[in-house]
Amino acid sequence: MPSGAPSEELLRRMKSARSILVLTGAGASAESGVPTFRGQGGLWREFRPEELATPTAFARNPKLVWEWYMWRRELVRQASPNHGHYALAALEAKFEEFTLVTQNVDGLHQRAGSRNVIEIHGNIMRSRCFSCGVQTGEVALDEDGQLPGCECGGLIRPDVVWFGELLPPQALKRAWDAATRAQVFLSVGTSSAVQPAAGLADIAGRAGAYLVEINPETTEMSDRFDEVVCAPSGQALPMICRGLGLNITADPAVRLS
Ligand code: OAD
């Protein structure tokens, strides 16, 4: 049965756990004003993310794809971490092993103070060459709308993983290894609709972890969790911290350098 608050069982498990694995998705940043992908707010102009976040879309119309990412970069720049981000940073300090795997590309976990963050879908502020793969900083369309180019002659693209692309293998391996060691697995703000990230819960479950979903809506995967906390992460995660006797430091001075 979903509940709006973490159970005594979850708090008991967390108090005795050495290793925690957290998977976050777009919902973790929703209370920071960054729109999720599915559901309301997922559209940009008339496009769905699946129509723009692909190598084919970039090859067909790189300017359109860049315009979308420049809009999203601006949203991320304006956004600040929320209570959920800060709660996860506070939790990290308590555990021997605390791994935060994120599908988010907005860097808000790091801005809230999380350290052991595995970005399996890249980072929106970075760019890389579409042809040779060399990474660059934050380049984009120039004022005249000219596409950024690489020295090799290729086009520069945002350094994020698109539909149909492989995830960075090292990041994936670290995430998978952490899943086999976790005693508690928290799935926070993700629809669990995209593989392989959604499969982390199964790996952690098979290895004996207590599986918890934190989401104000039920998802296709909810039945597979031991516990569903049916609340926004900005409420549920601070409740977990309080249950463990932890203070949350929400330092508004923490900003992306
Ligand atoms: P989705 O947009 O699919 O799902 C967001 C989830 O967050 C939904 O289940 C919402 O119910 C939930 N949610 C909304 N507000 C919330 C809140 N305040 N607290 C907690 N949960 C909340 O986003 P993802 O699951 O992250 O991939 O999507 C996975 C991947 O699909 C993304 O990383 C992206 C996308 O296409 C790529 O771009 C490769």
Rg calculated over all Cα atoms? 18 Å
Largest sheet, spatial ordering of strands: 3-2-1-7-8-9
How much is the average pLDDT?
Answer: 92
What percent of the residues sit in helical stretches (DSSP H or I)? 25-40%
What would you give as the CATH superfamily of the largest domain?
TPP-binding domain
Order of helices and strands: HEHHHHEHEEEEHEHEEH
Name the ligand types: 2'-O-acetyl adenosine-5-diphosphoribose
How many DSSP-defined strands? 9
Helical stretch tally: 9
Which CATH C-level class of the largest domain is it?
Answer: Alpha Beta
What profile does the largest beta sheet have? 6 strands, parallel
Topology (elements, then pairings):
Layout: H1 8-16, E1 19-24, H2 49-52, H3 55-60, H4 62-78, H5 83-92, E2 97-102, H6 108-112, E3 117-119, E4 122-129, E5 135-136, E6 156-160, H7 169-181, E7 184-188, H8 200-206, E8 210-214, E9 227-229, H9 233-243
Parallel strand pairs: 1-2, 1-7, 2-3, 7-8, 8-9
Antiparallel strand pairs: 4-5, 4-6
Helix pairs in contact: 5-9, 7-8
Bound molecules: 2'-O-acetyl adenosine-5-diphosphoribose.
2'-O-acetyl adenosine-5-diphosphoribose binds next to helix 9.
